[in-house]
Design goal:
By secondary structure, this protein is α/β, with parallel strands linked by helices. The protein is about 40% helix and about 15% strand. It has two domains: about 5-140, Four Helix Bundle (Hemerythrin (Met), subunit A) (Up-down Bundle), CATH 1.20.120.420; about 145-350, Translation initiation factor eif-2b, domain 2 (Rossmann fold, 3-Layer(aba) Sandwich). The structure holds 5-S-methyl-1-O-phosphono-5-thio-D-ribulose. 5-S-methyl-1-O-phosphono-5-thio-D-ribulose binds near residues 49, 169 and 173.
Length: about 350
């Protein structure tokens, strides 16, 4: 694993330690998060970000909310779990992994309550569940890496957008996992990383972690993606996702849609790499996905220097949706869904034992 993005420290009481990603690449700092408001703040500020990492953070955030509550009866613990879940759910709206992890924590508490456990017993179950989410994310990344690496050739050059690597998960990432795995297998690869305006996750984070991992990486600005494709430099595009609708529409960092359209125009395969926890079973189309809008200052004064006139109107959607028709395949931990559509996605979910809503 190139970096450890977040982890639970200690037993009980414990806390979450995470890389303070807003400071990278200038400073490598750890942030200790000890309560629920602190976790909401860390997620909102993007100290921890990337869909799977947000899911892991949410599970651990629940533990921060319940760990010091001794001797509660079952219903009181259940009320606390529901309340903590609602608070954490407000941190960011788009990455479905946040809600997936919280639903899983609430479901575990309900199960234990129904089994007659008291508050302390339910708390034990929550600890198990949060650690399970963390560990499952680790094995999921390995599987994504294995399936994705089959699409990568020795000597190939690949484009990625935003950061879907170790910094976005509890292991080697989603879209970057195939690069790490291909590299491990001895394939010589090169990666172009879109800088990813306005918060530069590509330049600050992807470039940083791929360099740590010994992978050849070149940063370009977002508007250069078409040029490098036109020059014949890109063999395929690999991106992560924050939420995938049942028809295969892929929501990811703003700018992904443009990259997908450009890829299609140039006959370049476009792959989304995502765990099944990123598929939203409750929505059939990408236009139902809530798109986070972030503050204007990220565009007008993102890194401390004014880059637009004071008072100018700004529109700052943090994500966009790439319609399924642009997606060559979705790499999941159970295999690649080629030319995704609702039928194929539903079949993959069912095969993995996931109930459709
Ligand atoms: O706003 P961010 O940095 O959380 O956006 C992250 C992305 O868009 C990633 O590509 C996505 O979450 C997939 S992460 C494995």
């Amino acid at each position: 694993m190139p970096v450890e993005t977040l982890k639970w420290i200690g037993e009980r009481p414990g806390h979450v330690q995470m890389i303070e990603q807003t400071k990278l690449p200038e400073t490598f700092e750890q942030l200790d998060v000890r309560d629920v408001p602190g976790m909401v703040d860390a997620i909102y500020r993007l100290a921890v970000r990337g869909a799977p990492a947000i899911g892991v953070a949410a599970g651990y955030g629940m533990l921060l909310g319940v760990q010091d509550k001794e001797g509660l009866d079952g219903p009181a613990m259940m009320a606390l779990v529901q309340e903590t879940s609602s608070t954490l759910a407000k941190a960011r709206p788009t990455a479905v992994n946040l809600f997936w992890a919280l639903d899983r924590m609430v479901a575990r508490a309900k199960l234990d309550l129904a089994a007659g456990k008291d508050g302390d017993g339910m708390r034990d179950g929550l600890f198990e569940e949060a650690h399970a989410i963390f560990h499952e994310d680790q094995t999921t990344c390995e599987a994504l890496g294995r399936y994705g690496a089959e699409l990568i050739k020795d000597g190939g050059t690949y484009l990625t957008h935003c950061n879907a690597g170790a910094l976005a998960t509890a292991n080697t990432g989603t879209a970057l996992a195939p690069f790490y795995e291909a590299n491990r297998q001895g394939k010589k690869i090169a990666v172009f990383a879109d800088e990813t305006r306005p918060l530069l996750q590509g330049a600050r984070l992807t470039a940083w972690e791929l360099m740590q991992g010994g992978i050849d990486v070149t940063v370009i600005t977002d508007s250069m993606a078409g040029r490098v494709m036109f020059e014949g430099k890109i063999d395929a595009v690999f991106v992560g996702s924050d939420r995938i609708a049942r028809n295969g529409d892929v929501c990811n960092k703003i700018g992904t849609y443009s990259v997908a359209v450009l890829a299609k125009e140039h006959g370049i395969p476009f792959y989304a790499v995502a765990p099944l926890s990123t598929f939203d079973r409750s929505i059939t189309h990408g236009d139902q996905i809530p798109i986070e809008e972030r503050p204007a200052i990220e565009i007008t004064n993102g890194f401390g220097k004014p880059t637009a006139p004071e008072g100018v109107k700004v529109y700052n959607p943090a994500f966009d949706v790439t319609p399924a028709k642009y997606v060559t395949g979705i790499v999941t931990e159970v295999g690649v869904i080629e030319a995704p559509n609702q039928e194929k996605i539903d079949a993959a979910m069912k095969a993995a034992g996931i109930e459709l809503l």
